[in-house]
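Sequence only, no structure available. Ideas?
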Amino acid sequence: MNGLGSKRHRQRVAQVAIVLGAWLLGGWLLYGSAFAPDESQGSGLLLERQSQMAPALITPQVAAERAEERAGEHATGCAAEIAMGSRSGMVSRSIEAADAFWKEAGDRWQQVFRVWQPPKFPKAGRSVTPSKTTPSKTTPSKTTPSKQGDRLMLADLARPVAVPAATLPSPNLPASGSAPSTPETQGRSPDSRSAFPQTPEPPEHQIRVLQGHQRAVWSVVFSPDGQHLATAGADGTARLWDDAGHELAQLVGHKRAVWNVVFSPDGQRLATAGADGTARLWALNGDELTVISAGDRAVWDVAFSPNGQRLATASPDGTARLWDLEGRELVVFRGHNRAVWSVAFSPDGQRLATAGADGTARLWTLTGRQLAVFRGHDRAVWSVAFSPDGQRLATAGGDGTARLWSLTGRSLAIFGDNRRAVWDVAFSPDQAHLATASTDGTVRLWNRHGGLVETFEGHRRAVWSVSFRPDGKWLASAGADGTARIWELPALLSADPS
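Reply:
I predicted one. C-alpha coordinates follow.
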Protein backbone atom coordinates (compact mmCIF):
# COMPACT_ATOMS: atom_id res chain seq x y z
CA MET A 1 0.00 0.00 0.00
CA ASN A 2 1.21 3.43 -0.79
CA GLY A 3 -0.52 5.05 2.20
CA LEU A 4 0.31 8.57 3.23
CA GLY A 5 3.87 7.96 2.19
CA SER A 6 3.01 8.14 -1.51
CA LYS A 7 3.73 11.34 -3.39
CA ARG A 8 0.11 11.73 -4.48
CA HIS A 9 -1.25 11.41 -0.92
CA ARG A 10 1.34 13.82 0.46
CA GLN A 11 0.27 16.36 -2.14
CA ARG A 12 -3.39 15.89 -1.18
CA VAL A 13 -2.62 16.32 2.52
CA ALA A 14 -0.59 19.45 1.82
CA GLN A 15 -3.41 20.92 -0.27
CA VAL A 16 -5.98 20.26 2.47
CA ALA A 17 -3.66 21.77 5.08
CA ILE A 18 -3.16 24.90 2.97
CA VAL A 19 -6.91 25.36 2.48
CA LEU A 20 -7.69 24.88 6.17
CA GLY A 21 -4.84 27.15 7.16
CA ALA A 22 -6.07 29.87 4.81
CA TRP A 23 -9.61 29.49 6.19
CA LEU A 24 -8.48 29.81 9.80
CA LEU A 25 -6.04 32.60 9.06
CA GLY A 26 -8.78 34.60 7.34
CA GLY A 27 -11.07 34.29 10.34
CA TRP A 28 -8.26 35.06 12.75
CA LEU A 29 -7.23 38.20 10.86
CA LEU A 30 -10.77 39.55 10.83
CA TYR A 31 -12.07 38.30 14.17
CA GLY A 32 -9.02 37.44 16.23
CA SER A 33 -10.63 38.59 19.47
CA ALA A 34 -13.31 35.92 19.12
CA PHE A 35 -10.73 33.15 19.28
CA ALA A 36 -8.59 34.50 22.14
CA PRO A 37 -9.34 33.03 25.60
CA ASP A 38 -8.83 36.45 27.16
CA GLU A 39 -10.06 39.58 25.43
CA SER A 40 -7.15 41.54 26.83
CA GLN A 41 -4.72 39.13 25.12
CA GLY A 42 -6.60 38.67 21.86
CA SER A 43 -4.63 39.83 18.82
CA GLY A 44 -7.96 40.72 17.23
CA LEU A 45 -8.19 43.82 19.42
CA LEU A 46 -5.93 45.74 17.06
CA LEU A 47 -8.11 44.90 14.09
CA GLU A 48 -11.19 45.74 16.15
CA ARG A 49 -9.81 49.17 16.99
CA GLN A 50 -8.78 49.88 13.41
CA SER A 51 -11.74 48.69 11.44
CA GLN A 52 -14.53 48.10 13.96
CA MET A 53 -15.68 45.37 11.60
CA ALA A 54 -18.05 43.60 14.05
CA PRO A 55 -18.25 42.19 17.61
CA ALA A 56 -16.92 38.72 18.31
CA LEU A 57 -18.95 35.68 17.44
CA ILE A 58 -21.01 34.34 20.36
CA THR A 59 -22.73 31.06 21.04
CA PRO A 60 -26.50 30.80 21.50
CA GLN A 61 -26.10 30.29 25.27
CA VAL A 62 -23.87 33.35 25.69
CA ALA A 63 -26.24 35.36 23.54
CA ALA A 64 -29.13 34.37 25.76
CA GLU A 65 -27.19 35.26 28.93
CA ARG A 66 -26.20 38.66 27.57
CA ALA A 67 -29.74 39.28 26.50
CA GLU A 68 -30.85 38.54 30.05
CA GLU A 69 -28.21 40.89 31.45
CA ARG A 70 -29.23 43.69 29.14
CA ALA A 71 -32.82 43.02 29.98
CA GLY A 72 -32.04 43.16 33.70
CA GLU A 73 -30.12 46.41 33.39
CA HIS A 74 -32.19 48.34 30.89
CA ALA A 75 -35.66 46.85 30.85
CA THR A 76 -37.41 46.45 34.15
CA GLY A 77 -40.31 44.70 32.51
CA CYS A 78 -38.09 41.92 31.20
CA ALA A 79 -36.30 41.63 34.56
CA ALA A 80 -39.62 41.21 36.32
CA GLU A 81 -40.62 38.61 33.78
CA ILE A 82 -37.43 36.63 34.42
CA ALA A 83 -37.89 36.89 38.17
CA MET A 84 -41.40 35.53 37.81
CA GLY A 85 -40.02 32.60 35.84
CA SER A 86 -41.91 33.28 32.70
CA ARG A 87 -40.84 30.39 30.51
CA SER A 88 -42.47 31.73 27.39
CA GLY A 89 -40.40 34.96 27.50
CA MET A 90 -37.15 33.05 27.96
CA VAL A 91 -37.90 30.71 25.07
CA SER A 92 -38.77 33.61 22.83
CA ARG A 93 -35.55 35.48 23.60
CA SER A 94 -33.45 32.32 23.17
CA ILE A 95 -34.92 31.67 19.72
CA GLU A 96 -34.32 35.27 18.68
CA ALA A 97 -30.74 35.15 19.97
CA ALA A 98 -30.03 31.89 18.10
CA ASP A 99 -31.41 33.31 14.85
CA ALA A 100 -29.32 36.43 15.29
CA PHE A 101 -26.23 34.30 15.95
CA TRP A 102 -26.52 32.22 12.79
CA LYS A 103 -27.31 35.23 10.63
CA GLU A 104 -24.36 37.15 12.05
CA ALA A 105 -22.03 34.18 11.63
CA GLY A 106 -23.04 33.70 8.00
CA ASP A 107 -22.59 37.40 7.19
CA ARG A 108 -19.13 37.48 8.76
CA TRP A 109 -17.84 34.44 6.91
CA GLN A 110 -19.07 35.97 3.69
CA GLN A 111 -16.80 38.88 4.54
CA VAL A 112 -13.94 36.42 4.98
CA PHE A 113 -14.65 35.02 1.51
CA ARG A 114 -14.67 38.51 -0.01
CA VAL A 115 -11.33 39.33 1.63
CA TRP A 116 -9.63 36.24 0.20
CA GLN A 117 -11.23 36.43 -3.23
CA PRO A 118 -9.03 38.42 -5.69
CA PRO A 119 -10.71 41.47 -7.22
CA LYS A 120 -12.00 41.31 -10.78
CA PHE A 121 -10.86 43.92 -13.26
CA PRO A 122 -11.88 44.35 -16.91
CA LYS A 123 -9.18 43.15 -19.27
CA ALA A 124 -7.18 45.80 -21.08
CA GLY A 125 -8.66 46.89 -24.37
CA ARG A 126 -12.15 45.53 -23.65
CA SER A 127 -15.25 47.46 -22.80
CA VAL A 128 -16.57 47.08 -19.26
CA THR A 129 -20.12 47.10 -20.58
CA PRO A 130 -21.66 43.66 -19.99
CA SER A 131 -22.17 41.65 -23.15
CA LYS A 132 -23.80 38.33 -23.84
CA THR A 133 -21.11 37.48 -26.36
CA THR A 134 -18.09 35.70 -24.94
CA PRO A 135 -14.86 37.13 -26.38
CA SER A 136 -12.77 34.65 -28.30
CA LYS A 137 -9.52 33.54 -26.71
CA THR A 138 -6.29 34.21 -28.50
CA THR A 139 -3.38 31.93 -27.87
CA PRO A 140 -0.20 33.99 -27.63
CA SER A 141 2.39 32.89 -30.14
CA LYS A 142 6.10 32.67 -29.59
CA THR A 143 8.23 35.34 -31.19
CA THR A 144 11.79 35.09 -32.37
CA PRO A 145 13.47 38.50 -32.59
CA SER A 146 15.98 39.00 -35.36
CA LYS A 147 19.27 40.86 -35.21
CA GLN A 148 17.57 43.85 -36.81
CA GLY A 149 14.75 43.77 -34.28
CA ASP A 150 12.06 42.40 -36.57
CA ARG A 151 9.51 39.85 -35.48
CA LEU A 152 8.37 36.80 -37.35
CA MET A 153 4.94 36.34 -38.84
CA LEU A 154 3.32 34.83 -35.77
CA ALA A 155 4.32 37.83 -33.66
CA ASP A 156 2.19 40.09 -35.83
CA LEU A 157 -0.66 37.60 -35.60
CA ALA A 158 -0.65 37.91 -31.82
CA ARG A 159 -0.81 41.70 -31.78
CA PRO A 160 -4.12 43.25 -30.83
CA VAL A 161 -5.74 45.19 -33.66
CA ALA A 162 -6.94 48.67 -32.85
CA VAL A 163 -10.13 48.27 -34.86
CA PRO A 164 -13.50 48.14 -33.08
CA ALA A 165 -15.26 44.83 -33.56
CA ALA A 166 -18.52 45.18 -35.42
CA THR A 167 -21.13 42.85 -36.77
CA LEU A 168 -20.30 41.78 -40.29
CA PRO A 169 -22.66 43.13 -42.90
CA SER A 170 -24.59 40.72 -45.03
CA PRO A 171 -22.36 39.64 -47.92
CA ASN A 172 -22.55 41.44 -51.24
CA LEU A 173 -24.72 44.35 -50.15
CA PRO A 174 -24.32 47.32 -52.48
CA ALA A 175 -22.23 50.07 -50.91
CA SER A 176 -24.96 52.62 -51.39
CA GLY A 177 -27.83 50.38 -50.25
CA SER A 178 -30.00 51.09 -47.24
CA ALA A 179 -32.31 49.07 -45.04
CA PRO A 180 -35.76 48.62 -46.60
CA SER A 181 -38.68 50.55 -45.18
CA THR A 182 -41.10 48.54 -43.05
CA PRO A 183 -44.45 49.33 -41.41
CA GLU A 184 -42.62 49.55 -38.09
CA THR A 185 -40.12 52.15 -39.35
CA GLN A 186 -42.31 54.24 -41.67
CA GLY A 187 -43.09 57.70 -40.42
CA ARG A 188 -40.32 57.71 -37.81
CA SER A 189 -37.70 60.39 -37.61
CA PRO A 190 -34.04 59.42 -38.20
CA ASP A 191 -33.33 59.94 -34.51
CA SER A 192 -36.02 57.56 -33.31
CA ARG A 193 -34.82 54.24 -31.97
CA SER A 194 -36.37 51.01 -33.18
CA ALA A 195 -36.83 47.97 -31.00
CA PHE A 196 -35.84 45.84 -33.99
CA PRO A 197 -32.14 45.29 -34.91
CA GLN A 198 -30.94 47.27 -37.90
CA THR A 199 -28.73 45.80 -40.63
CA PRO A 200 -25.42 47.67 -40.39
CA GLU A 201 -24.41 49.77 -43.34
CA PRO A 202 -21.49 48.30 -45.31
CA PRO A 203 -18.21 50.23 -45.15
CA GLU A 204 -17.71 53.01 -47.67
CA HIS A 205 -16.57 51.80 -51.14
CA GLN A 206 -17.13 48.13 -50.23
CA ILE A 207 -19.17 46.24 -52.83
CA ARG A 208 -18.57 42.55 -51.99
CA VAL A 209 -17.78 40.34 -49.01
CA LEU A 210 -16.51 36.83 -49.77
CA GLN A 211 -17.30 34.55 -46.84
CA GLY A 212 -16.62 30.84 -46.65
CA HIS A 213 -13.23 30.23 -45.07
CA GLN A 214 -13.39 29.00 -41.50
CA ARG A 215 -10.25 30.84 -40.44
CA ALA A 216 -8.02 33.72 -41.60
CA VAL A 217 -7.76 34.40 -45.33
CA TRP A 218 -4.08 34.82 -46.17
CA SER A 219 -4.18 35.65 -49.85
CA VAL A 220 -6.50 36.95 -52.54
CA VAL A 221 -5.84 37.45 -56.25
CA PHE A 222 -7.84 38.35 -59.37
CA SER A 223 -7.71 36.16 -62.46
CA PRO A 224 -6.03 37.64 -65.56
CA ASP A 225 -9.45 38.38 -67.13
CA GLY A 226 -10.79 39.88 -63.90
CA GLN A 227 -13.85 37.61 -63.83
CA HIS A 228 -12.74 35.39 -60.98
CA LEU A 229 -10.90 35.56 -57.69
CA ALA A 230 -8.96 32.98 -55.72
CA THR A 231 -8.36 32.97 -51.97
CA ALA A 232 -6.09 30.95 -49.66
CA GLY A 233 -6.89 30.33 -46.02
CA ALA A 234 -5.58 29.11 -42.70
CA ASP A 235 -8.30 26.42 -42.82
CA GLY A 236 -6.13 24.48 -45.30
CA THR A 237 -8.18 25.29 -48.41
CA ALA A 238 -8.01 27.57 -51.40
CA ARG A 239 -11.25 28.69 -53.04
CA LEU A 240 -12.36 29.97 -56.40
CA TRP A 241 -15.04 32.68 -56.67
CA ASP A 242 -16.80 34.58 -59.39
CA ASP A 243 -16.77 38.37 -59.32
CA ALA A 244 -20.27 38.39 -57.81
CA GLY A 245 -18.92 36.70 -54.67
CA HIS A 246 -20.23 33.17 -55.30
CA GLU A 247 -17.97 30.27 -54.42
CA LEU A 248 -17.29 28.05 -57.43
CA ALA A 249 -14.78 25.46 -56.19
CA GLN A 250 -12.69 24.41 -53.20
CA LEU A 251 -9.11 23.25 -53.56
CA VAL A 252 -8.59 20.66 -50.83
CA GLY A 253 -5.33 18.81 -50.37
CA HIS A 254 -2.97 20.78 -48.16
CA LYS A 255 -2.66 19.34 -44.68
CA ARG A 256 -2.04 22.69 -43.05
CA ALA A 257 -2.63 26.40 -43.77
CA VAL A 258 -2.46 27.65 -47.35
CA TRP A 259 -0.38 30.83 -47.39
CA ASN A 260 -0.71 31.99 -50.97
CA VAL A 261 -2.54 31.35 -54.23
CA VAL A 262 -1.87 32.63 -57.76
CA PHE A 263 -3.37 32.20 -61.23
CA SER A 264 -1.30 31.02 -64.15
CA PRO A 265 -0.80 33.70 -66.82
CA ASP A 266 -3.44 32.07 -69.04
CA GLY A 267 -5.89 31.86 -66.12
CA GLN A 268 -6.42 28.11 -66.55
CA ARG A 269 -4.57 26.85 -63.49
CA LEU A 270 -3.89 27.80 -59.90
CA ALA A 271 -0.80 27.33 -57.76
CA THR A 272 -0.84 27.29 -53.96
CA ALA A 273 1.83 27.46 -51.25
CA GLY A 274 1.28 25.60 -48.00
CA ALA A 275 2.59 25.29 -44.47
CA ASP A 276 2.74 21.52 -45.03
CA GLY A 277 5.92 21.95 -47.12
CA THR A 278 4.29 21.67 -50.53
CA ALA A 279 3.33 23.82 -53.48
CA ARG A 280 0.50 22.44 -55.58
CA LEU A 281 -0.93 22.93 -59.06
CA TRP A 282 -4.70 22.78 -59.58
CA ALA A 283 -7.28 22.83 -62.32
CA LEU A 284 -10.01 25.43 -61.89
CA ASN A 285 -12.53 22.73 -61.01
CA GLY A 286 -10.47 21.80 -57.93
CA ASP A 287 -8.61 18.79 -59.35
CA GLU A 288 -5.04 18.51 -58.08
CA LEU A 289 -2.49 18.30 -60.91
CA THR A 290 0.98 18.35 -59.33
CA VAL A 291 2.48 18.32 -55.86
CA ILE A 292 5.89 19.97 -55.44
CA SER A 293 7.52 18.91 -52.19
CA ALA A 294 9.97 21.14 -50.34
CA GLY A 295 10.62 18.53 -47.66
CA ASP A 296 9.86 19.59 -44.11
CA ARG A 297 10.11 23.29 -44.99
CA ALA A 298 6.94 25.34 -45.20
CA VAL A 299 6.34 27.08 -48.52
CA TRP A 300 5.42 30.70 -47.80
CA ASP A 301 4.90 32.02 -51.31
CA VAL A 302 4.61 30.84 -54.89
CA ALA A 303 4.71 32.68 -58.23
CA PHE A 304 4.26 31.73 -61.88
CA SER A 305 6.79 32.88 -64.43
CA PRO A 306 5.26 35.11 -67.17
CA ASN A 307 5.39 32.25 -69.68
CA GLY A 308 3.68 29.90 -67.21
CA GLN A 309 6.42 27.26 -67.44
CA ARG A 310 8.21 27.83 -64.14
CA LEU A 311 7.29 28.27 -60.50
CA ALA A 312 9.25 30.08 -57.81
CA THR A 313 8.78 29.35 -54.10
CA ALA A 314 9.89 30.99 -50.84
CA SER A 315 10.96 29.01 -47.77
CA PRO A 316 11.82 29.66 -44.11
CA ASP A 317 15.31 28.18 -44.57
CA GLY A 318 16.45 31.42 -46.22
CA THR A 319 16.20 30.19 -49.82
CA ALA A 320 14.01 30.69 -52.85
CA ARG A 321 13.74 27.91 -55.41
CA LEU A 322 12.87 27.59 -59.08
CA TRP A 323 10.87 24.58 -60.29
CA ASP A 324 9.43 23.22 -63.49
CA LEU A 325 5.77 22.23 -63.59
CA GLU A 326 6.65 18.58 -63.01
CA GLY A 327 8.09 19.39 -59.60
CA ARG A 328 11.79 19.21 -60.50
CA GLU A 329 14.03 21.68 -58.69
CA LEU A 330 16.06 23.82 -61.11
CA VAL A 331 17.80 26.60 -59.15
CA VAL A 332 18.30 27.51 -55.48
CA PHE A 333 18.71 31.20 -54.62
CA ARG A 334 20.89 31.66 -51.52
CA GLY A 335 21.71 34.98 -49.91
CA HIS A 336 19.14 35.81 -47.25
CA ASN A 337 20.28 34.83 -43.77
CA ARG A 338 16.75 34.33 -42.51
CA ALA A 339 13.39 33.16 -43.90
CA VAL A 340 12.27 34.23 -47.38
CA TRP A 341 8.65 35.39 -47.28
CA SER A 342 7.88 36.49 -50.82
CA VAL A 343 8.95 35.97 -54.43
CA ALA A 344 8.02 37.79 -57.65
CA PHE A 345 9.01 37.43 -61.32
CA SER A 346 9.79 40.50 -63.40
CA PRO A 347 7.29 41.09 -66.25
CA ASP A 348 9.89 40.00 -68.82
CA GLY A 349 10.60 36.79 -66.87
CA GLN A 350 14.35 37.42 -66.70
CA ARG A 351 14.69 38.31 -63.02
CA LEU A 352 13.38 37.23 -59.66
CA ALA A 353 12.84 39.40 -56.58
CA THR A 354 12.74 38.05 -53.03
CA ALA A 355 11.82 39.52 -49.63
CA GLY A 356 13.12 38.19 -46.34
CA ALA A 357 12.98 38.27 -42.58
CA ASP A 358 16.51 39.68 -42.54
CA GLY A 359 15.07 43.09 -43.46
CA THR A 360 16.20 43.05 -47.10
CA ALA A 361 14.80 42.48 -50.57
CA ARG A 362 17.06 41.06 -53.26
CA LEU A 363 17.14 40.93 -57.05
CA TRP A 364 18.43 37.84 -58.91
CA THR A 365 18.97 36.44 -62.34
CA LEU A 366 17.19 33.16 -62.99
CA THR A 367 20.53 31.39 -62.75
CA GLY A 368 20.78 32.35 -59.09
CA ARG A 369 23.20 35.30 -59.37
CA GLN A 370 22.43 38.19 -57.03
CA LEU A 371 22.11 41.58 -58.74
CA ALA A 372 21.13 44.01 -55.97
CA VAL A 373 20.23 44.22 -52.28
CA PHE A 374 17.53 46.64 -51.11
CA ARG A 375 18.17 47.88 -47.56
CA GLY A 376 16.04 50.36 -45.65
CA HIS A 377 13.39 48.48 -43.71
CA ASP A 378 14.13 48.18 -40.00
CA ARG A 379 12.36 44.86 -39.69
CA ALA A 380 11.28 41.91 -41.83
CA VAL A 381 10.24 42.51 -45.43
CA TRP A 382 7.00 40.60 -45.94
CA SER A 383 6.21 41.22 -49.59
CA VAL A 384 7.82 42.33 -52.84
CA ALA A 385 6.23 43.27 -56.19
CA PHE A 386 7.41 44.47 -59.60
CA SER A 387 5.78 47.45 -61.28
CA PRO A 388 3.92 46.51 -64.49
CA ASP A 389 6.72 48.00 -66.62
CA GLY A 390 9.37 46.11 -64.62
CA GLN A 391 11.40 49.22 -63.81
CA ARG A 392 10.64 49.52 -60.10
CA LEU A 393 10.11 47.37 -57.03
CA ALA A 394 7.75 47.85 -54.10
CA THR A 395 8.26 46.23 -50.71
CA ALA A 396 6.13 45.92 -47.56
CA GLY A 397 7.74 45.66 -44.15
CA GLY A 398 7.20 44.91 -40.49
CA ASP A 399 8.47 48.42 -39.68
CA GLY A 400 5.10 49.85 -40.74
CA THR A 401 6.17 51.14 -44.16
CA ALA A 402 6.01 50.21 -47.81
CA ARG A 403 8.83 51.45 -50.02
CA LEU A 404 9.36 52.13 -53.71
CA TRP A 405 12.77 51.34 -55.22
CA SER A 406 14.71 51.61 -58.43
CA LEU A 407 16.19 48.32 -59.61
CA THR A 408 19.62 49.50 -58.48
CA GLY A 409 18.46 49.62 -54.84
CA ARG A 410 17.80 53.38 -54.54
CA SER A 411 14.81 54.35 -52.38
CA LEU A 412 12.27 56.47 -54.29
CA ALA A 413 9.35 56.87 -51.88
CA ILE A 414 8.14 55.70 -48.48
CA PHE A 415 4.50 54.90 -47.72
CA GLY A 416 3.16 54.51 -44.19
CA ASP A 417 3.19 55.92 -40.68
CA ASN A 418 5.22 53.25 -38.87
CA ARG A 419 2.28 52.32 -36.65
CA ARG A 420 1.63 48.73 -37.70
CA ALA A 421 3.30 46.18 -39.94
CA VAL A 422 2.52 46.45 -43.66
CA TRP A 423 1.99 42.91 -44.87
CA ASP A 424 1.43 43.24 -48.61
CA VAL A 425 1.82 45.76 -51.42
CA ALA A 426 0.51 45.82 -55.00
CA PHE A 427 0.83 48.14 -58.01
CA SER A 428 -2.25 49.40 -59.84
CA PRO A 429 -2.32 48.39 -63.53
CA ASP A 430 -1.50 51.96 -64.61
CA GLN A 431 1.41 52.13 -62.10
CA ALA A 432 0.10 55.44 -60.73
CA HIS A 433 -1.01 53.99 -57.39
CA LEU A 434 -0.08 51.36 -54.84
CA ALA A 435 -2.24 49.52 -52.31
CA THR A 436 -1.04 48.23 -48.96
CA ALA A 437 -2.45 45.75 -46.45
CA SER A 438 -1.76 46.42 -42.79
CA THR A 439 -2.06 44.57 -39.51
CA ASP A 440 -4.11 47.49 -38.15
CA GLY A 441 -7.07 46.14 -40.14
CA THR A 442 -6.97 48.71 -42.96
CA VAL A 443 -6.26 48.82 -46.67
CA ARG A 444 -4.64 52.00 -47.93
CA LEU A 445 -4.40 53.47 -51.41
CA TRP A 446 -1.40 55.69 -52.21
CA ASN A 447 -0.21 57.71 -55.17
CA ARG A 448 3.26 56.98 -56.51
CA HIS A 449 4.74 59.97 -54.66
CA GLY A 450 3.80 58.56 -51.24
CA GLY A 451 0.59 60.55 -50.71
CA LEU A 452 -2.35 58.80 -49.06
CA VAL A 453 -5.43 58.77 -51.31
CA GLU A 454 -7.90 56.67 -49.30
CA THR A 455 -8.15 54.34 -46.30
CA PHE A 456 -10.54 51.39 -46.55
CA GLU A 457 -11.92 50.23 -43.21
CA GLY A 458 -14.10 47.15 -42.93
CA HIS A 459 -11.97 44.21 -41.86
CA ARG A 460 -12.26 43.47 -38.17
CA ARG A 461 -8.70 42.21 -37.85
CA ALA A 462 -5.38 42.35 -39.70
CA VAL A 463 -5.34 42.52 -43.51
CA TRP A 464 -2.84 40.16 -45.14
CA SER A 465 -3.22 40.59 -48.89
CA VAL A 466 -4.31 43.05 -51.60
CA SER A 467 -4.84 42.65 -55.35
CA PHE A 468 -5.98 45.01 -58.14
CA ARG A 469 -8.35 43.82 -60.82
CA PRO A 470 -6.60 44.01 -64.20
CA ASP A 471 -8.87 46.84 -65.38
CA GLY A 472 -8.05 48.86 -62.24
CA LYS A 473 -11.67 49.36 -61.20
CA TRP A 474 -11.69 47.10 -58.14
CA LEU A 475 -9.35 46.28 -55.31
CA ALA A 476 -9.58 43.03 -53.32
CA SER A 477 -8.30 42.43 -49.80
CA ALA A 478 -8.01 39.37 -47.54
CA GLY A 479 -7.95 39.42 -43.76
CA ALA A 480 -7.61 37.58 -40.49
CA ASP A 481 -11.36 38.00 -39.90
CA GLY A 482 -11.97 35.15 -42.36
CA THR A 483 -13.24 37.32 -45.22
CA ALA A 484 -12.09 38.73 -48.51
CA ARG A 485 -13.57 42.06 -49.58
CA ILE A 486 -13.88 43.97 -52.83
CA TRP A 487 -13.65 47.76 -52.97
CA GLU A 488 -14.63 50.11 -55.78
CA LEU A 489 -11.94 52.51 -57.02
CA PRO A 490 -12.79 54.63 -60.12
CA ALA A 491 -14.16 57.69 -58.30
CA LEU A 492 -11.14 57.71 -56.00
CA LEU A 493 -8.60 57.46 -58.79
CA SER A 494 -10.23 60.14 -60.90
CA ALA A 495 -10.33 62.49 -57.89
CA ASP A 496 -6.60 62.02 -57.18
CA PRO A 497 -4.72 64.97 -58.74
CA SER A 498 -1.57 62.88 -59.17
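The longest strand covers residues 206-211.
Hope that gets you unstuck.
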